[in-house]
Every structure is written in C-alpha cells, then in structure tokens.
Amino acid sequence: MTDVWANIWTVAKLGEKSSIGKRPDHTDGDKTGNAMTIKVHERLLLTGAAGGLGKALRGRLSANCKTLRLSDRVDPGAAGIGEEVMLADLADASAVLAAMEGVDAVVHMGGIPVEGPFGPILQANILGAYNLYEAARQCGTKRIVFASSNHVTGYYRQSETITADHPPRPDSMYGVSKAFGEDLSRFYFDRHGIETACLRIGSAFPEPRDRRMLATWLSYDDLYRLVTACLTTPVLGHTIVFGMSDNPVTWWDNTRARHVGYAPKDSSEPFREAMYARTPEPDLTDPVAIHQGGGFLRMGPFDQG
Ligand SMILES: NC(=O)c1ccc[n+]([C@@H]2O[C@H](COP(=O)([O-])OP(=O)(O)OC[C@H]3O[C@@H](n4cnc5c(N)ncnc54)[C@H](O)[C@@H]3O)[C@@H](O)[C@H]2O)c1
Predict the structure, then answer these.
(1) How far apart are the first and last CA of the chain?
(2) CB-ligand 1 contact for 294 (6 Å cutoff)
(3) Does 65 map to a domain?
(4) pLDDT, tens digit (0-9, with 9 covering 90-100), for 95-147
(5) Percent of the chain scoring above 70 in pLDDT
(6) Which atom of ligand 1 is nearest to the CA of 128?
(7) Domain count of the chain?
(8) In what helix (H) or strand (E) does residue 239 lie, and over which residues does it extend?
(9) 109 in ligand 1 pocket by Cβ < 6 Å?
(10) In a domain, 228, yes or no
(11) From the CA of 53, how far away is ligand 1's center (Å)?
(12) Domain assignment present for 56
C-alpha cells in the first residue's frame, strides 16, 4: 500500500515545488486553471469513466497518477497513454474486486445519477457501493472520493444554510441511496480506516442551466480541484464536502471541511444576468422552488424496476 503523504513530500521535494514544513499547493494551476502536476498516486481507479463527470475528470486526473484505471459498465473508449480500461458492473462483486487490484485510491463516479425506479438504484448505488468498499478493504485501498449528492439534503429549504453536521433529509430514493453510501463509507472508516470524502455534488455541468443552479453550480475545473484536494490532503478522515463553485448565493457551508483545502476558483455569477433574462420568476408557493432539491421533489414514485 502506498503512503500517499510520504509520496507527496518526496515528489514535491524532488520537484522543488515546496519546502519542508510547507504543504505543496495542489490547487494552484497552470494557465488553463488545471491543478498540480505532481503524480501522487501510482494507480488511481476512476469509476463511471464513461459518464459526464468521468469524461470531465479523465483528462485532468492523468496529472494526479502514474496510471489511471478507467472503469464503467460501458466502454469509456480506448486507453490512452498512462491509462488502462477495466469494464465492471458495480453490482458484480468479483468484477469490482478485479478492478480494485493494485489501486491506491479511487474516484468513485459510477452509479445512477438521477431519481428513477428503485431496482437500478439498488444495484448500482447501494449494492455497488458495498462492493466497492468491500473490494477496497480486501485490497488495502485506503482513500476514496465518493460522488454523493446534494439530494441527500434536498428537503432543506433554500432559505437555510446547512453544514455537513445537519442530518440527511433526502428528496428521492436516489438521495436515500447516496445517504446510504455516506453511512457505509463512515462505517468503513471507523472499522477499517478507509478514508473517504463524500462529495455532495451540486450541479456539475459546463454552465448553470437554470436559476437553481446559480446556487448549486460546480464547474468542471472546480470539481477537479475538489477531487484533487481530497486525494492529496494529508489527513482526510471521513469528510462530507458540498461540491460547489464559489457562488455568491449558496445554501451550503463547507467550514467543516477546511482541512481538505478546497479553494474553488469559478463562480456562477457571470451567468446570472442572462439567466434572469431568459427564465421566469420562480413561484415561491411551489415546493420545488422552496426546497434545495428543486425538481427532484416532484420525481416519482416509480413502478418497481
Ligand atoms: N452531474 C452532476 O451534477 C451530479 C450531481 C450530484 C451527484 N452526481 C454524482 O456524480 C456521479 C457522476 O455523475 P454523472 O453526471 O457523470 O452521471 P453519468 O450518468 O453521466 O455517469 C455515471 C456513469 O456510471 C455508470 N454506471 C451506472 N450504473 C453502473 C453500474 N451498475 N456499474 C458500473 N457503472 C455504472 C454509467 O454507465 C455512467 O457512465 C454520479 O454518481 C452522480 O450521482 C452528479
């Protein structure tokens, strides 16, 4: 098993990126806004590599590791330099175990990303999370960045600011499945010492798509900064972080996660004026406009899938 922090120090020292006693700044980037180029991990597993966020992270994460192992149940495309591909259905324990072999950290993006019939959510998000943590325990993998969701707390109101200490109030079976993943990862930390950052991702898209996303937006570059911070902070523990850019209007307070060192550099503010011009005023008697989960409050119930 790789001692990640020892690795950071060694590489940082060799590259004269920092001096002893000073933490390397992994969030400072090159001119494109992308983060550090220190290859901290030997082999990083990216699940959900064929999905929207998997594709966004794929090119960026090659800077963080010597080998990036891409996994999904569908083909993420041919492996490039420094990449390898291992298809695995998260519901298949032996396939997940094989994908975990030789991996020193995981960025877990795979799963069903929206509300829908419970069957696929159960397989991918609940059984899949269990298979992933069991595989990590068996392989000695010690750090996981888990794509949780803001829908774990979607029933809080938009007039409230919540921290990671607020109890979950899921707005959907999807949100319930992510709350399960958060609890599961806490158990594997307490019992087995596997560190996890649960990223309660807001809305990670190239740009905000509606008024709600002015509060919840997470740019792809900030997503990468957040993932990198979670992968490299010396002591992660079990941490819940709201995944958002530096948006002026927000419902989430990340002060419980200062030790992660996440410093967003993007903001939804430049999109506000055009968004207001092309979208109607929200109906403030509508639960969808009042609660943080937005449209997820209206989805379902679905027939058993
Ligand atoms: N995009 C967002 O704004 C957002 C917000 C909150 C949370 N998230 C979470 O981030 C993660 C990535 O989201 P995304 O937007 O890229 O979604 P996506 O649907 O584009 O990607 C998810 C990937 O997971 C794979 N997958 C689904 N079921 C699987 C299974 N059983 N086995 C293996 N692979 C499986 C899919 O094939 C897909 O490639 C998800 O876990 C999602 O819940 C995303």
Answers:
(1) 40
(2) no
(3) yes
(4) 999 999 999 999 999 999 999 999 999 999 999 999 999 999 999 999 999 99
(5) 87
(6) 31
(7) 1
(8) strand 238-243
(9) yes
(10) yes
(11) 7
(12) yes
In a domain, 26, yes or no: no
| Ligand 1 centroid distance, CA of 47 (Å) | 9
Ligand 1 pocket, residue 181 CB under 6 Å? no
Q: Which atom in ligand 1 lies closest to the alpha carbon of residue 53? A: 16
pLDDT confidence tier of residue 305, bands split at 50, 70 and 90? low
Please give the pLDDT value at position 303. 83
What residue's CA is closest to ligand 1, atom 43? 113
CATH label of the domain that carries residue 64: 3.40.50.720
Residue 38 DSSP SS3: coil
Tokens 């001692």 locate to: 3
Which residue type is seen at 98?
A
Torsion of CA 244, 248, 249, 251, to 10 degrees: 50
Helices (H), the chain: 4-14, 52-61, 93-100, 118-121, 128-139, 173-192, 213-216, 220-232, 272-278, 287-290
Domain range for residue 66? 39-298
Closest CA to 49 of 83, 81, 17, 72: 72
Worst-scoring range by mean pLDDT, 60-64, 89-93, 149-153?
60-64
Residues 168-216 pLDDT 10s: 999 999 999 999 999 999 999 999 999 999 999 999 999 999 999 999 9
Residue 101's Cα: distance from chain center in Å? 21
C-beta of 203 in contact with ligand 1 (< 6 A): yes
pLDDT of 18 higher than 50:
no
